[in-house]
Amino acid sequence: xxxxxxxxxxxxxxxxxxxxxxxxxxxxxxxxxxxxxxxxxxxxxxxxxxxxxxxxxxxxxxxxxxxxxxxxxxxxxxxxxxxxxxxxxxxxxxxxxxxxxxxxxxxxxxxxxxxxxxxxxxxxxxxxxxxxxxxxxxxxxxxxxxxxxxxxxxxxxxxxxxxxxxxxxxxxxxxxxxxxxxxxxxxxxxxxxxxxxxxxxxxxxxxxxxxxxxxxxxxxxxxxxxxxxxxxxxxxxxxxxxxxxxxxxxxxxxxxxxxxxxxxxxxxxxxxxxxxxxxxxxxxxxxxxxxxxxxxxxxxxxxxxxxxxxxxxxxxxxxxxxxxxxxxx
Length: 329
Prior knowledge:
By secondary structure, the protein is α+β, with helices and mostly antiparallel strands.
């Protein structure tokens, strides 16, 4: 399955992870806490020297266009990452990570990397808040992270988000609870300078978000369900095609159901199968790691699993809403 991580010609990968290797098995795994500068080095994110260069157009234009250019972290050659307008403000990777570091007033870096040929970079720091679910011998742990990410092609704003992650299968739930903001965005036409306090205040709502997530997760794992209820949840989220639908549509639906069932009773989920929490995890895990990318491309898989993809997050919210309606009524 594609991971979209940036890889140099010599096989080096722009990704680093503390202690735990990622599902793709790529990048640098290190054993002890590192500084922000060291994290950037380990993930091949330092010294990119992102800057704008004039574009000479073949004809007159009412706008000025610039190429976002960097020094490739593996061979030092110049790369064009995107084309932007005059209002675009460059943000170095060092500035993005300093922003995340300042939000927590220091913290433990967990992961960092570059995806989509260097156009998107990200890093995550561990939060102190941890959710532990252990009713009746069923144990599941959710660590929580501050995720900072941005793009160098104008496609993504500078963003800081709070994300709960299921450690066992690296399944980013990133479920947006109603009326709770969990992210802070800065457009590339603005600057991050002086925005730390405003971001902290916005992400101060994260505590309420995580507290509500704890309550919801506890309720889900304490709710036992039958196999029929699990199947009803699948059909509520993914309705079975009508009888007059094409054979291909029916086969795709059956394959999707088989995959979800396999995950539900598989090695990463079997301990919580039979609970509403296990049901939700089975459906969201399929979204993250067991599907093909949109339009025949797998580039979106890494973004979806990391909580970057709005369409995937919306589908996860739909799963959660159906679970609460059908399994917790």
